[in-house]
Amino acid sequence: MSPPRGRLGIPPKQGGNAYLLGLVASEAAHQIRAWRREVETEWRAGSPEIEVSALRNALVRAESLGLDPYLVAYVIMGAEWLFRARRLTRPEIGTKLDELEQRLRQSLLAGWEPQLASLLVGGIAESAIKALDRVVYFVSLGTWAGPEYTWRQSLTARMEPSSVTRELIYPRGKSGAIPKLSPTIAGLIVEGLAEREGRRRGGAQALGMQIASILRRRKVLNGEFVQSRKRLSIAAPDLPTGLTDEPEPRDLREWLIQRWIRAYDFAFGGSEPSWPVFLIAIADAPKAEFWQISEPDVLATLYSLP
After folding, report:
1. CB 79 within 8 A of CB 189
2. 14 falls in which pLDDT band (50, 70, 90)?
3. Mean pLDDT for the chain?
4. How many CB atoms sit inside 10 A of residue 206's CB?
5. Would you state the pLDDT for residue 191?
6. If DSSP states are collapsed to H, E and C, what string results for the chain?
7. Mean pLDDT comparison of 120-124, 146-150, 228-232, 263-267, highest-scoring range
8. Is the Cβ–Cβ distance between 190 and 213 less than 8 Å?
9. Which of 68-77, 93-102, 154-163 has the highest mean pLDDT?
10. pLDDT score at 27
11. pLDDT band, very low/low/confident/very high, at 93 (cuts 50, 70, 90)
């Protein structure tokens, strides 16, 4: 994959793209800051800030390793937009219960005993609130990770501890703590991209850790990064990546790499839109630009990993 040049509409300078990539890093950091501020509970005060010079250096380093630095920037921005999650609030849960009550009142109960709607919702409200307290709300997609079972399967699972029926999808660990996935996922995808360019694991991993550290705003340790890679060694989703000339992905990490490459090719292929046009598009409608990486089931799986 040969790195494109001049997507900012400025001819590349002789001897490198450091100046242009500095502009890319600045704009990316600005957009990431805005996205992170939409999830205040996930990022503490000051954490939304990304060090522009460090990000520029990482893009320059990626280019020196043979990677398309704009692809790396796309991966970083896509991960930062996509992996934003929080818990549902009590008012939001209450609104959903109100909507359920209203729908029941407008159903067959309307011509029979509409007051049963309130009784039914009141009967399930306490259990629903307890369950939904653990559900992850995907800010980027405007939806939540819902259960993968019917109410009968849920009841059977509670009665039979040995049942293999999956519980509600939610992050494991301390109550209320949702993992910050964007730094790790972006780093692991960039590492994979470097490996595809023939770079040895050491150099590829170093670049991936550099990206993850910049986004995490602290040094990501070697063992931590390796463990994160192992978590993605589970089976790949039964979903096409869009790269028809590629072998089937062997695991979830490879699936993510292939899907991100396809999404980038789709966004920048053909007419070769400029980077400023892309920045305007993601500021106005990021979901339209990142839809190819927006698989709710995959997102839910990633947030449920131990």
Report:
1. yes
2. very low
3. 79
4. 18
5. 96
6. CCCCCCCCCCCCCCCCCHHHHHHHHHHHHHHHHHHHHCCCCCCCCCCCCCCHHHHHHHHHHHHHCCCCHHHHHHHHHHHHHHCCEEECCHHHHHHHHHHHHHHHHCCHHHHCCCHHHHHHHHHHHHHHHHHHCCCEEECCCCEECCCCCCHHHHHHHHHCCCCCCCCCCCCCCCCCCCCCHHHHHHHHHHHHHHHHCCCCHHHHHHHHHHHHHHHHCCCCCHHHHHHHHHHCCCCCCCCCCCCCCCCCCCCHHHHHHHHHHHHHHHHHCCCCCCHHHHHHHHHHCHHHHCHHHCCHHHHHHHHHCC
7. 228-232
8. no
9. 68-77
10. 93
11. confident
Residue that is written with structure tokens 């990316």 in the block: 28
Q: Which amino acid is at 202?
A: G
